[in-house]
Amino acid sequence: MALTTPLARKMGIRYPIFGLAHNIDVMVALGKAGGYPVFGAARSMPEEIAEEARIMKDRLGDLPFGIDLMLPSTVGDDTDREGTKSNLPDSHKAFVQELTEKYKVPPATKPTFFSSQIRSQQLFEEQMAATLESGAHSFASAVGMPPEMIQRAKDHGKVTFSLVGAPRHAEKAKAAGVDVIVAQGYDAGGHTGPIGTFSLVPQVVEVAGDTPVLAAGGVGHGRHIAASFGLGAQGVWLGTAWLASKEHALCDALLNKLLKSDSLNTTISLSHSGKSCRIVKSAWSEEWDRPDAPEPLKMPYQQVLTADLVAGVNEHEIEPLLYEATGQSIAWFNELKTVDEIMQRLVSETEVALDNMQKQLAG
Ligand SMILES: Cc1cc2nc3c(=O)[nH]c(=O)nc-3n(C[C@H](O)[C@H](O)[C@H](O)COP(=O)(O)O)c2cc1C
């Protein structure tokens, strides 16, 4: 039995395995390995998006790829990062200063996306314009799905994806005419809602009707992929899987933390962005969980508050504080592999799992 679905055939990919990463090498390797790459551009400036898309198009040739943006409607119009930063509560600034001193974090020498600007509706509009003009085959929206953005993407000939964490979000996606709904459960790395993948996917499938659904959150083994078909999905969407790839080339300290982690080593925290986000446990999450720690600020202010410290942590590899968005699926990624090897493992495990299911059902 070939491992394909109507959606995979429609999208022109060998396997119904979709993946999101913020790394071009991972995306190119995933496309070449028969999956569908969706580049996370939420942390890219508009001019970077144009360049990143150009590179992916060059390297992928005729293979399709998508671009994903975060478009939360709760973020406002403020574009003055420095002014905003100086107005943040003193208690919060003091806490960040305390962490900086306690862990001896030197200042970063290079600016990062978050240390150089503030998320705003203006930025989202410019990111969207760059995405629409790019050679990407599809557009994915996460944490917010303005119907007019979906329509604009469709008008530009893009296939549209929307990540949803609850059946009512799926209803909105359906009403907006989204082409593929990604049901992303609580197990997932990154921003996530409270409904577990196993409960969420069939509910979204019911709402979606003839709109195809992908299962996301906690997928790390072919058994999950086989189960996703049972839940009514036409494929899977993975994020954590690619962090442990050679192509991603995480720094050794963070990579080793992830390779040693299992599902218990992740936690939901507001400390990353102000929205609930699953990250790998570290001194970062522990410090913010302290009873005397301040309540994280709402998006986008939490990252205005922490960006300089996080930039220093990442640049100087301050091991205790290093963290990344990480799903419970991390349990299945405890060896450094290439993206192609990860794909081959997932595909062969799925084939075995489907075969076993048939044997079991045949008695
Ligand atoms: C490091 C990382 C970064 C992520 N960034 C985004 C993002 O920018 N946009 C998005 O739609 N989803 C993002 N996600 C969530 C993924 O799209 C995906 O839904 C999720 O990883 C699936 O669960 P898994 O982590 O168990 O595979 C991210 C996930 C990870 C692990």
Describe, in plain words, how this protein is organized in 3D.
It is a single chain. The chain contains 15 helices and eleven strands. By secondary structure, the chain is of the alpha/beta class. The protein is globular and about 65 Å long. The strands form two sheets. It has an eight-stranded parallel beta barrel, surrounded by five helices. It has a three-stranded antiparallel sheet with strand order 7-11-10, with helices on one face. The chain is 44% helix and 13% strand. The chain has a domain at 6-78 and 118-249 and 337-361: Aldolase class I (TIM Barrel, Alpha-Beta Barrel), CATH 3.20.20. The protein binds flavin mononucleotide. Flavin mononucleotide is lined by residues 20, 40, 42, 68, 70, 142, 163, 184, 187-190, 216-219, 237-241, 243, 324-327, 329.
Report the span from N to C terminus.
19 Å
Overall average pLDDT: 96
Classify the oligomer: single chain
The CATH topology of the domain at 6-78 and 118-249 and 337-361 is: TIM Barrel
Radius of gyration: 20 Å
The small molecules bound here are: flavin mononucleotide
Number of helices: 15
Write out the strand line-up for the largest beta sheet, numbering strands in chain order.
1-2-3-4-5-6-8-9
Helix content estimate: 40-55%
Quantity of strands, as a count: 11
